[in-house]
Specification:
The chain has two domains: about 170 residues, Bordetella uptake gene, domain 1 (D-Maltodextrin-Binding Protein, domain 2); about 120 residues, Periplasmic binding protein-like II (D-Maltodextrin-Binding Protein, domain 2). It has about 350 residues and is α/β, with parallel strands linked by helices. The longest helix has 26 residues. It contains twelve helices and eleven strands. Helix 2 crosses helix 10. A six-stranded mixed beta sheet has the order 2-1-3-10-4-11, sandwiched between helices.
């Protein structure tokens, strides 16, 4: 009888241990994360700024994690398809979102109810200015040439954009607002398809991230008319800063330019967030990644935690109100508690 009771107690004890271990594993508290490869989702096309930054930084992060991060481009609907996909997955740290500031503007643009409030930022890697580019055979040799034509003949110049809220789209609104111009937008999924379209003369002009435009400018395939920034890019000494050419634009240009980061779904366990933060810190500090940023004209940021949120919120405020004041929003930023930036 005593042996039988002893066996029953042993069975109960083992069962409790299994349940406890199982519970820890499910909650992400076991310390074994990651136990399998991760999935990285890029909501923009291959070859664009988000794609290049994300695929470069994961090399060092993978080494730190000891697992692969399998990268996939899930494009469409101005990045909302990829962001929605990540949101629909479990909050377990195995599906990562690599995106830009666009993801904070979707409600204002009427594209999606999702914002970064539904995610946790792991790391904000860098930001970059856009460059107004035309093909090498374009009749436009300066930003003034382009603006004068767009003003004299509204809606005749085909401006390639990467969806509502993307860098080229916002840049076109900024130019219209500042210089009373009007472009005819043609939409593509990210910098990669925009480059192909400009090479094939399907569009007349676009705005690419400096990193995406760099090799084409250096090879002479494109002409750079202006950097959408107050500061010139060291790696592009022949392309003037718009703020230097047009002082009236300087205030609006203070916080422009896309930034790039990695996120997980909100409610991902804290220990998983901490491990991912440590891994992407290693990826960010990796010598190859830092050289990539320098060579391609990116400004390193290296933000996480509260600093990442401060950057996201400041950028969202400036961009959301710029879009709204230009009459291009579907709803006022006030509806989503987005404060107007200080003047």
């Amino acid at each position: 009888m005593r042996n039988k009771k002893s066996k029953v107690l042993q069975f109960i004890s083992l069962s409790l241990i299994v349940l406890l271990l199982g519970g820890c594993t499910l909650s992400g508290q076991s310390g074994t994360y990651p136990s399998k490869n991760l999935n990285g989702v890029i909501p923009w096309g291959a070859g664009g700024g988000t794609d290049l930054v994300s695929r470069t930084v994961v090399t060092g992060a993978q080494e730190a994690l000891g697992k692969n991060i399998v990268m996939t481009n899930r494009t469409g609907a101005s990045g909302t398809i990829g962001q929605q996909y990540v949101y629909d997955q479990k909050a377990d740290g195995y599906t990562l979102l690599f995106n830009t500031g666009d993801g904070s503007l979707y409600p204002v643009l009427g594209l999606s109810d999702l914002t970064y409030k539904e995610f946790t930022p792991i790391y904000i890697f860098a930001r970059i200015a856009g460059v107004v580019v035309v093909s090498k055979d374009s009749p436009y040799n300066s930003i003034d040439d382009l603006l004068e034509e767009a003003k004299a003949n509204p809606n005749t110049i085909k401006m390639g954009v990467s969806g509502v809220g993307g860098l080229p789209w916002v840049a076109s609104i900024m130019l219209n607002n500042l210089f009373d111009t009007s472009f005819s937008p043609v939409t593509f999924d990210g910098d990669g398809p925009l480059i192909t379209a400009l090479m094939g003369n399907q569009i007349d002009v676009t705005v690419l991230s400096a990193g995406s435009a760099m090799q084409y400018l250096q090879q002479g395939d494109f002409k750079g008319l202006a950097v959408i920034s107050n500061d010139q890019i060291e790696a592009l000494p022949d392309v003037p800063a718009l703020g230097a050419l047009k002082p009236e634009a300087q205030s609006m240009l203070q916080t422009t330019g896309p930034w790039f980061g990695v996120f997980v779904k909100k409610e991902t366990p804290e220990d998983v967030v901490a491990k991912l933060t440590e891994a992407f810190k290693a990826g960010y500090e990796n010598e190859t990644f830092q050289e990539f940023l320098k060579t391609n004209g990116y400004t390193p940021l290296g933000l996480t935690g509260d600093a990442a949120w401060d950057h996201i919120n400041a950028w969202q405020s400036q961009q959301a109100w710029l879009i709204h004041d230009a009459g291009q929003s579907q709803a006022s930023p006030e509806e989503f508690d987005i404060p107007r930036p200080a003047q």
